[in-house]
């Protein structure tokens, strides 16, 4: 079983991830939180294999987010995405 933690500020997105990923027997969304600090506290005392996170937060950059996660548990893989409209 792969333990996933989801970080996104919007409850509907967190619920969507939990619902969508529940279909896969080998994945378990063990927790979903709205901010980085709450995620770090959860990681300190719970086994997480993969962190799935929105990359646009007002108080932390994606690089800082990865650094914080890796300082607590360097084995966690981090997947970043954004729901923000981006123009290339």
Mean pLDDT: 91
Rg estimate, integer Å: 13 Å
Number of domains: 1
Which architecture per CATH? 3-Layer(aba) Sandwich
The description of the largest β-sheet is: 4 strands, parallel
Give the strand content.
25-35%
How many E-type strands?
4
* Relative helix content: 25-40%
Shape label: globular
Structural class: alpha/beta
What distance separates the N and C termini?
A: 37 Å
- Note the run of SSEs as H and E: EHEHEHE
Q: The CATH topology, please?
A: Rossmann fold
Tally of alpha and pi helices: 3
Topology:
Elements: E1 2-7, H1 11-21, E2 27-33, H2 36-45, E3 50-54, H3 62-72, E4 77-81
Parallel strand pairs: 1-2, 1-3, 3-4
Tell me about this structure.
This protein has 88 residues and is α/β, with parallel strands linked by helices. It has a single domain (2-81), classed as Response regulator (Rossmann fold), CATH 3.40.50. It contains three helices and four strands; from the N terminus they run βαβαβαβ. It has helices at residues 11-21, 36-45, 62-72; strands spanning 2-7, 27-33, 50-54, 77-81. Helix 2 (36-45) runs parallel beside helix 3 (62-72). The longest helix is centred in the first third of the chain and has 11 residues, at 11-21.
Task: Give short descriptive properties of this protein.
88 residues; 36% helix; alpha/beta; 4 strands
């Amino acid at each position: 079983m792969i333990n996933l933690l989801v970080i996104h500020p919007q409850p509907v997105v967190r619920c969507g991830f939990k619902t969508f990923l529940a279909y896969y027997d080998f994945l378990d969304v063990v927790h979903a939180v709205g901010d980085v600090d709450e995620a770090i506290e959860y990681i300190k005392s719970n086994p997480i294999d993969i962190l799935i996170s929105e990359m646009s937060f007002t108080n932390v950059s994606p690089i800082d987010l990865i650094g914080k996660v890796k300082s607590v548990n360097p084995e966690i893989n981090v997947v970043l995405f954004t729901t923000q409209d981006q123009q290339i």
